[in-house]
Amino acid sequence: MRTLVLGGDGYLGWPTALHLAAAGHDVAVADNFVRRQYDHELGVQSLVPIEPLQVRLDVWQEVGSNPVRAYIGDLTDPEYTYEMIREFRPDAVVHFAEQRAAPYSMIDRKHAVYTQQNNVVGTLNVLYAIAEIDRDIHLVKLGTMGEYGTPNIDIEEGWIEITHKGRTDRMLYPKKPGSFYHLSKVHDSHNIEFACRIWGIRSTDLNQGVVYGQQTPQTALDDRLLTRLDYDHVFGTVLNRFVIQAVLGHPLTVYGSGGQTRGFIDIRDTAECIRLAAENPPEPGEFRVFNQMTESFSVAELAKTVADAYSKPVEIEYLENPRVEADSHYYNVVHTGLPELGLEPHLLSDTLIESMFEIVERHKDRVDLASMRPTVQWRSTSSPIRND
Amino acid sequence: MRTLVLGGDGYLGWPTALHLAAAGHDVAVADNFVRRQYDHELGVQSLVPIEPLQVRLDVWQEVGSNPVRAYIGDLTDPEYTYEMIREFRPDAVVHFAEQRAAPYSMIDRKHAVYTQQNNVVGTLNVLYAIAEIDRDIHLVKLGTMGEYGTPNIDIEEGWIEITHKGRTDRMLYPKKPGSFYHLSKVHDSHNIEFACRIWGIRSTDLNQGVVYGQQTPQTALDDRLLTRLDYDHVFGTVLNRFVIQAVLGHPLTVYGSGGQTRGFIDIRDTAECIRLAAENPPEPGEFRVFNQMTESFSVAELAKTVADAYSKPVEIEYLENPRVEADSHYYNVVHTGLPELGLEPHLLSDTLIESMFEIVERHKDRVDLASMRPTVQWRSTSSPIRND
Fold first, then answer.
1. For the domain that residue B54 is a member of, what is the CATH number?
2. Within-domain flag for A380
3. Could you tell me if B387 and B370 are in contact, meaning their C-beta atoms sit under 8 angstroms apart?
4. Residue B171 with chain A: CB contacts under 8 Å
5. DSSP tag of A304
6. Does residue A177 carry a pLDDT above 80?
7. B75-98, pLDDT tens digit by residue?
8. Distance, in angstroms, between B378 CA and closest chain A CA?
9. Would you say residue B381 lies in a domain?
10. Radius of gyration for the alpha carbons in chain B, expressed in angstroms and rounded
């Protein structure tokens, strides 16, 4: 099958593209390199050095099983988007191409507006392109578990049957996201559900947990195929950051009491979920939602897991929480859809952490400590981006 | 109190501004005149001729009780928005300033993107301006009953208590809107609820029904104070259109079977609801939602009411529905919040319809028949805007 991976130069887009190519898909990636641009803006870098896209593609052509081609451009440009979809004619479009950091969207007004405009307009253009070119194309859209917030009832997969005053309906699960970024994904989901309803488009919305890990069997083939590993306070995700802190002998920094519980997923499972979703499309007109996560942990539990797994003693430090979020709450997530399609989850284990320790150990000289302390404050409307 | 009416040159913004001024508020209006621009784009006009804003303001200064001033500019321009709010320092911001026609948003990709970008970014700028300048300012935001769609359970006022698998939470009411315009309002509501939560802003979200009527006690003081009356297929609302069709001796055009049931409200009640909301602000941090409608009717019932009230025989014609919507469904709306604040609704009655017949009779030579037939098709991605 033909699969177009939007945002295919990013942390997850790149290894997913390779995973799909290795599984026999005819793959193209699309990117505008804005993710690399954010690094320059924030003055941060991936811990693991990454090659330019063209080098990655050339190396994959040598060592991989199935060449991957690239379309360079911006989804908010409709001409680019239409032309690419018209030319490549994918069976599935996998859409990672959004600004994906909550703190980035909370820096100030400009970053909030940019995030919502970029994400919502890019997705609208993709929806229109599919509606105009071929309504059979399956849109596999990356959302986030953060769209739901932390409700006091179980989190279902996108839809919920509500009985109210003796009557019943199946409705979109009510969401209460925690940043202007998370909100942009909620907006997308509403737009996509509507497009399915009026145009008969088929879509899978994947509400993904926090991803950890850095290696997949494909990126491991050659150092030049490695994907990024972010640990800065804006784009870094919590487990990656903890592993780096442990290796450096620094305390693991927990925001608030650490009672915040979230869903997590291994990077290899992300790639596999995308394959399963793409190869098993929903019916025309169906807006299908999966919760793409495998385990739940509180931040404090994560810190303890990392500390216990590391060979040397590790301290845990509690910082004031820059975000506005509950740090003691109910959290129970239904996530059976992807396992029913065949997902066999990797579970967060000492082994995994140990493999991550190794990667970090190799690159620890590159760590920029100043980039790890949070500066973006949810209650403020204008935050500095560096803490030097 | 000081009240800033965004979109104060529009169909409802203008009479609301005068109603508030007459009630003793110190009022300013803001507008960028884009509503007048849409008329030129679509080649349509208000049935009732309207004066330029400056003339309206001058006449009101002569005949009204309390002068109204104006800020001319675009809310998507943050400098304009911040400066206006900093200078006027309102107690309440009443926000009508959005592209408000579902068919306009469904013309094609460009109009869908424009609608969402304009509405969402304008509202984000207002939220940031309030958060930066004075978090006590009460944002009174116009939403629409169309955000809810037609669920099979009662429509509550913005929030719903959900019991699920033995646990309970109070959650945002799940929405299933019927156009990219309606979706933009859903996006706004989510953004505003979040701003209340993180910044302690207070907001009232008014999910308004379909408005009918054209005169208020203030606009009746002088013909140069009249507000617009739209009847074209893009900006015209259903009751206004039926009254015009009746007066012209044309059949009333019902889309589909006419079983679509909607909430309605008299233009005078709209203005009064805004006053009640503004003068009774919610607590800091509260996202309060009211369903701003007074009665529900099916489109077929409305047509029959108009036909029965008119002095001459009236035919009813059923057209294919250009929209994607259920035309036979449950519809029961809770709308007690505004009556509890003191709203005494005008009900749709023969009297009201007769007063509208009069206005239309006076201006019937201005009717452009071609502008009344629907051309915008929900299932299409590119519709013509005229039916000549």
1. 3.40.50.720
2. no
3. yes
4. 151, 174, 176
5. H
6. yes
7. 999 999 999 999 999 999 999 999
8. 7
9. no
10. 20
**Model pLDDT, residue A351:** 65
Question: For residue B347, what pLDDT is reported?
Answer: 84
Nearest to B47 by CA among B244, B221, B206, B201: B244
CB atoms under 10 Å from CB of B170, counted, come to 11
Q: Is residue B10 pLDDT above 90, yes or no? A: yes
pLDDT tens digits, A215-266: 999 999 999 999 999 999 999 988 989 999 999 999 999 999 999 999 999 9
Contact A370, A288 (CB under 8 A): no
Q: What angle do CA B367, B371, B372 make, to 5 degrees?
A: 85
Please list the alpha-helical segments (H only) found in chain B: 13-22, 34-42, 53-63, 78-88, 102-105, 109-133, 180-199, 238-248, 267-279, 299-309, 337-341, 350-363
Interchain CB contact of A171 with B (< 8 Å): yes
Q: Residue B351 class from Cβ within 10 Å (0-12 exposed, 13-18 middle, 19+ buried)?
A: exposed
Report the alpha-carbon angle B372-B374-B380, nearest 5: 160
| Residue B79 structural domain | 2-372
Residues of B in contact with A379 (CB under 8 A): 198-199
Q: Do A330 and B167 touch (CB under 8 A)?
A: yes
Q: Which tokens go with A376? A: 């973006």
The structure's pTM equals 0.97
Q: Which two tokens stand for residue B258?
A: 């006419």
Structural domains in chain B (count) = 1
Specify whether the CB–CB gap between B171 and A175 falls below 8 A: no
First to last CA, chain A: 49
Give domain status of residue B380, yes or no: no
Largest CA distance in chain A: 63
Q: Which two tokens stand for residue B327?
A: 């035309």
Taking the C-alpha atoms of residue A342 and residue A276, their distance in angstroms, rounded to an integer, is 7
User: Tokens at residue B82, please?
Assistant: 């911040």
Length of chain A: 388
d(CA B114, CA B173): 26
The residue to which tokens 């709010």 are assigned: B85
Is the residue at A77 inside a domain? yes
Q: Compute the distance between CA of residue A50 and CA of residue A229 in angstroms, rounded to an integer.
A: 9
Q: At what angle do helices A180-199 and B180-199 cross, to 10 degrees?
A: 160
SS3 B108: strand
A328-363 per-position pLDDT tens digit: 999 999 999 999 999 999 988 766 676 789 999 999
Contact B175, B143 (CB under 8 A): no
Dihedral in degrees, nearest 10, Cα atoms A13, A15, A18, A19: -110
CB contact under 8 A, B183 and A177: no
> How far apart are the C-alpha atoms of A100 and A93, rounded to whole Å?
18
Cβ contact B323:B149 at 8 Å: no
Angle between helices B109-133 and B180-199 (to 10 degrees): 20
| Residue B350 confidence (pLDDT) | 65
Instruction: Tell me whether residues B183 and A165 touch, CB distance under 8 A.
Output: no
The answer to whether the beta carbons of residues B12 and B215 sit under 8 Å apart is: no
Q: How far apart are CA B319 and CA B347, in angstroms?
A: 28
| ipTM over 0.95 threshold | yes
Q: Which candidate, B215, B297, B311, places its Cα nearest to that of B259? A: B297
More confident residue, A183 or B371: A183
Contact A239, A306 (CB under 8 A): yes
Question: Could you tell me if A255 and A321 are in contact, meaning their C-beta atoms sit under 8 angstroms apart?
Answer: yes
pLDDT value, residue A386: 75
* Amino acid at the residue B234: V
Strands A167-172, A261-266: parallel, antiparallel or unpaired by DSSP?
unpaired
| Dist CA A322 CA A320 (whole Å) | 6
Measure the CA–CA gap between B323 and B383, rounded to whole angstroms.
Answer: 12
Nearest-CB residue to A121 (from B113, B173, B197): B113
With an 8 Å Cβ cutoff, is B55 touching chain A?
no
